[in-house]
Q: What sequence folds into this?
């Protein structure tokens, strides 16, 4: 446990030093946020029917997406780990008296936390003070805020568990590009990063709802905006825990398999 | 302490001749050939020994080290080190060993060396007092005081290698595997590394298994050598016997160790 905490701290400290990357990221995210909101605003003005999610809830959804990008993006990756696998430096990780799964999990978690820590506050603060209709609304009460934080953190754990599968697949494919692209495009679509899930057609929603991806982004954001009521949130949080346990179990099993037949080439 | 018996390991290598035509053919039917990296390797090593493990490139030295450090699972054979089977009891076993792969790095590239060391302390759960005293000893003998707060990316190869060796010894391992620890080092660094290996072997009784292509390393360090070629163990014995065996048919009176090794490679036809 101490080892996982230690690698977590080191990675966090390491990640917090990239200030200019964070600044550039913030600028990009504001740009994207405005564009997406303007597109939806145009759609909403022309819509003949009442949309399933209100514009202000949708705007909140978009700003939260931008602020917590590092928590929810599957393409956000640790090249060091890919290099470790493809170059054979994993030899050293295998000589350590700790499970590699937990070790990498801690590393990836710290990296995402560091990146989000630098970006989320400035974006949230600015977005709260923007003029209407671009303003990020605050949660209606304390209970909603607490539920949001729980849902967001559990979502982050699920996301890291999913991204571990990408790294494990690299043992077989020896190249990160394929699985990263596949997981990235499909996973983010299913998480509601492209089209918010409430706006998807109902047949698609029924597919999305049985998969874990929406629990990482769509679910916490809708809890925040109140689109998912509190009692429903309390029902879904156990589901998050269930998915987390299942994904970690799958990842550990797959990694055990991969390590049994690992071939450290060269030298 | 270390007993290896009958270890075999083969790798599957995809084969194809050059050219587009063959590449297209390989799309449909791929041919593999089995390369026997290790073929029935057996030896045993007593505590406190320094063993030089030599052989030409591609002989299977690194593969043996990887099997012994629990990284590779062999196809056949058994290996018992301090009561453990490395690849089965990996986590419990690796606490007792230190490994240096000369061609790879275990230090974090972007942070000062000391941060990597602190991380290793936590990974191996080394008590603080023990860690302090180990670090002090290592820093003195390997001359690390000035470089320990420098980020790894700014170190020279020799400085980095000294840090790598120190990193492998922070947890007081009783066995040290060194896979080409002197590769690419200048004379001063080489001698520093050699002196250090002798010293921890004498003072702490660490068993050392060392692969190298630098025969001076072997001459300076190893009482016993294992020669491997094409996956088979060809010679197991001490250096003086070997020298005497080849001294007669040599032109000069005292052939250098390199001469002897070359002659040996020729006799066993492994070059």
A:
């Amino acid at each position: 446990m101490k080892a996982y905490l230690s690698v977590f701290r080191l990675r966090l400290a390491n990640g917090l030093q990239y200030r200019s990357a964070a600044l550039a990221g913030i600028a990009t995210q504001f740009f994207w946020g405005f564009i997406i909101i303007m597109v939806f605003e145009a759609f909403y003005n022309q819509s003949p029917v009442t949309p399933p999610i209100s514009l202000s809830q949708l705007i909140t959804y978009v700003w939260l997406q931008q602020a917590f990008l590092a928590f929810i993006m599957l393409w956000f990756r640790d090249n060091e780990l890919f290099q470790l696998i493809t170059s054979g430096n994993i030899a050293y990780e295998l000589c350590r008296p700790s499970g590699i799964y937990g070790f990498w999990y801690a590393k990836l978690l710290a990296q995402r936390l560091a990146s989000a820590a630098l970006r989320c506050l400035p974006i949230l603060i600015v977005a709260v003070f923007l003029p209407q209709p671009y303003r990020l609304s605050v949660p209606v009460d304390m209970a909603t805020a607490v539920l949001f934080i729980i849902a967001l953190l559990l979502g982050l754990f699920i996301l890291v568990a999913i991204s571990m599968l990408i790294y494990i697949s690299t043992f077989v494919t020896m190249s990160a590009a394929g699985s990263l692209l596949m997981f990235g495009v499909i996973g983010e679509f299913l998480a509601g990063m492209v089209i918010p899930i409430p706006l998807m057609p109902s047949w698609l929603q029924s597919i999305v709802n049985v998969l874990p991806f929406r629990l990482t982004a769509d679910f916490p954001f809708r809890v925040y905006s109140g689109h998912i009521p509190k009692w429903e949130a309390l029902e879904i949080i156990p589901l998050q825990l269930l998915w987390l346990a299942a994904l970690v179990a799958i990842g550990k099993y797959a990694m055990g398999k991969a390590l049994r037949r690992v071939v450290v080439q060269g030298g | 302490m270390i007993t290896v018996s009958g270890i075999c390991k083969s790798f599957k290598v995809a084969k194809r001749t050059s050219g587009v035509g063959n590449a297209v053919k390989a799309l449909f039917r791929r041919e593999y050939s089995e390369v026997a990296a290790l073929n029935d390797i057996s030896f045993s090593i007593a505590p406190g020994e320094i063993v030089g493990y030599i052989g030409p490139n591609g002989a299977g030295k690194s593969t043996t080290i990887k099997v012994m450090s629990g990284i590779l699972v062999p196809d056949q054979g058994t290996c018992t080190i301090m009561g453990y089977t490395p690849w089965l009891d990996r986590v419990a076993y690796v606490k007792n060993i230190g490994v240096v792969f000369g061609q790879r790095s275990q230090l974090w590239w972007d942070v000062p060396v000391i941060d990597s060391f602190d991380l290793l302390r936590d990974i191996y759960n080394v008590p603080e007092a023990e860690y302090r005293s180990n670090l002090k000893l290592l820093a003195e003998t390997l001359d690390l005081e000035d470089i320990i707060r420098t980020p790894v990316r700014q170190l020279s190869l020799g400085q980095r290698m000294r840090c790598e060796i120190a990193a492998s010894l922070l947890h007081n391992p009783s066995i040290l595997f060194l896979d080409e620890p002197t590769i690419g080092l200048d004379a001063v660094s080489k001698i520093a590394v050699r002196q250090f290996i002798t010293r921890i072997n004498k003072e702490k009784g660490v068993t050392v298994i060392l692969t190298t292509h630098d025969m001076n390393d072997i001459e300076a360090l190893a009482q016993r050598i294992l020669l491997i070629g094409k996956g088979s163990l060809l010679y197991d014995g001490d250096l003086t016997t070997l020298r005497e065996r080849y001294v007669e048919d040599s032109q000069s009176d005292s052939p250098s160790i390199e001469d002897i090794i070359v002659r040996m490679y020729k006799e066993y036809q492994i070059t």
Observations:
- The domain at 47-106+168-267 of chain B is CATH 3.40.50.300 (Rossmann fold).
- Chain B touches chain A at residues 11, 62, 66, 69-73, 90-92, 94-95, 97, 99, 101-106, 108, 110-111, 115, 118-119, 121-125, 179-180 (CB under 8 Å).
- Residues 14 and 152 of chain B are 37 Å apart (CA to CA).
